[in-house]
Write a structure and sequence with these properties.
Elements lengths: L1 H26 L3 E3 L2 H10 L7 E2 L14 H9 L2 E4 L9 H4 L5 E4 L52 H18 L4 H26 L6 E6 L3 H7 L2 E7 L8 H12 L8 E4 L4 H11 L3 E4 L12 H17 L1
Parallel strand pairs: 1-2, 1-3, 3-4, 5-6, 5-7, 7-8
Helix pairs in contact: 5-6, 6-10
C-alpha cells in the first residue's frame, strides 16, 4: 500500500511539473508571427530549430480584429514579433508600441517593395471612367496613392514572399547565431518552393489573363500584378467603412453602359459575405468567396502553399 502511495505521489508531482512546463512554453514562445501566410514562411525557415507561434488564425480580418489577453501576453513574452505592420494589422499597433522586445515590421524594411494603396472608383487607366479617381474619396480613409499608405497584402504574390524570406532570415540569424547555416539552407529551399508554387499558379491563371473583376475591399493588387488579372473596382478601400450609395450606383451605371466589364464580385471570407452578396445582386454579377488568410488551412510550414492554391481555385471558378 505504501509503495502505491509513493508511486501515486510521484505521478502527481510529475504531472504538475509537466503542466507548469507546458504552461511556461505556451506563454514564452520565442517567435510570434501575426498571420498564417507569414507564419508558414517562418516555420519553414526555423525548421529543426523552433516552433513559431501564430497570433491570428485567419477567422477574422486583421484590419479590425480584437486581441484577447493571451495574445497580448504572447506578443509581450516573445523574443521577436514578426508582422506586416499597421498598413495591414492596425489593431496590433497599440500593443506593438508598448513592446520592449525585438519587433520585425516588414512594411518598414526598404528591401520589400510595397505598393501604395489605390483610391477612387475605377482602376482601369484605359477606361473612360478613369477620371473618377480623384472624385470618390467620401467613403475612404486613404485619399492618396503614395508610399505613406502602403498596401500590406504582400503574400498574394509568391515572388514578393522571396523578398520577405531575405529580410526575415537576417533577423533570425541574429536570434539564432549558432544555426546560421541551417537557417540559410532552409531559406534557400523555401525560395525554390516559392518559385515552383508561382509557376504552378501561373499555369492555372494563364487562361484568365486580362480578365477584370470587383472585390469587396482592395487587397489584390499584388495578385493582379503576379497573374495579370485586374481589379476594375472595389466596394471599399477600408473594410470598416461602408460604401456610399453613390459609389455603388456609379459602378452599376458603368457596367450597364458597357464602360467596364467585371466578370465577378469577390467577397472575402473574413468580411460580411451577406452584404457583399447584396452588392453582387445589385450589380447583377456572379458572386464568390475567396480566403487569402486560409482560415480553414492548418497552420504550419505547408499552409502558404495550401492557402494560395485554394485562393486561386476559388478565384478561377467564377471568373471563367
Amino acid at each position: 500500500m505504501r509503495k502505491k502511495l509513493v508511486f501515486l505521489a510521484v505521478g502527481v508531482v510529475a504531472a504538475v511539473l509537466f503542466f507548469n512546463a507546458s504552461s511556461t512554453r505556451a506563454t514564452t514562445d520565442e517567435i510570434v508571427v501575426s498571420i498564417k501566410p507569414l507564419h508558414s514562411l517562418v516555420c519553414a525557415l526555423t525548421k529543426s530549430i523552433t516552433n513559431p507561434t501564430l497570433l491570428l488564425d485567419g477567422s477574422t480580418s486583421p484590419h479590425h480584429t480584437q486581441l484577447v489577453p493571451s495574445q497580448v501576453l504572447a506578443m509581450k513574452n516573445a523574443k521577436i514579433l514578426i508582422w506586416v505592420g499597421p498598413a495591414y494589422e492596425q489593431p496590433l499597433f497599440k500593443h506593438v508600441k508598448q513592446l520592449e522586445n525585438n519587433v520585425l515590421t516588414l512594411q518598414d524594411d526598404s528591401s520589400i517593395k510595397l505598393k501604395p494603396l489605390r483610391s477612387g472608383t475605377f482602376w482601369d487607366e484605359k477606361s473612360c471612367c478613369a477620371h473618377d479617381h480623384h472624385k470618390d474619396h467620401d467613403h475612404h480613409h486613404h485619399e492618396k496613392s503614395d508610399a505613406t499608405n502602403p498596401d500590406g497584402h504582400i503574400w498574394l504574390d509568391p515572388l514578393m514572399m522571396t523578398q520577405v524570406v531575405d529580410v526575415v532570415l537576417q533577423h533570425l540569424k541574429k536570434l539564432y547565431p549558432n544555426h546560421q547555416g541551417l537557417l540559410s539552407r532552409n531559406a534557400n529551399d523555401y525560395k525554390k518552393r516559392l518559385e515552383v508554387l508561382h509557376q504552378d499558379l501561373l499555369k492555372k491563371m494563364k487562361p484568365y489573363k486580362g480578365k477584370t473583376y470587383i472585390i469587396q475591399h482592395d487587397g489584390n493588387q499584388y495578385f493582379d500584378n503576379a497573374y495579370k488579372v485586374k481589379t476594375i473596382a472595389t466596394i471599399s478601400i477600408d473594410p470598416s467603412i461602408p460604401p456610399s450609395a453613390g459609389h455603388i450606383l456609379k459602378i452599376r451605371k458603368a457596367i450597364s453602359d458597357g464602360k467596364i466589364h467585371p466578370r465577378c464580385l469577390y467577397a472575402e471570407r473574413q468580411l460580411d459575405g451577406a452584404l457583399a452578396r447584396s452588392y453582387a445582386d445589385t450589380l447583377k454579377l456572379p458572386f464568390a468567396v475567396v480566403d487569402y488568410l486560409g482560415a480553414d488551412v492548418p497552420a504550419g510550414e505547408d499552409a502558404y502553399k495550401a492557402l494560395m492554391n485554394a485562393y486561386v481555385n476559388a478565384f478561377i471558378e467564377e471568373i471563367k
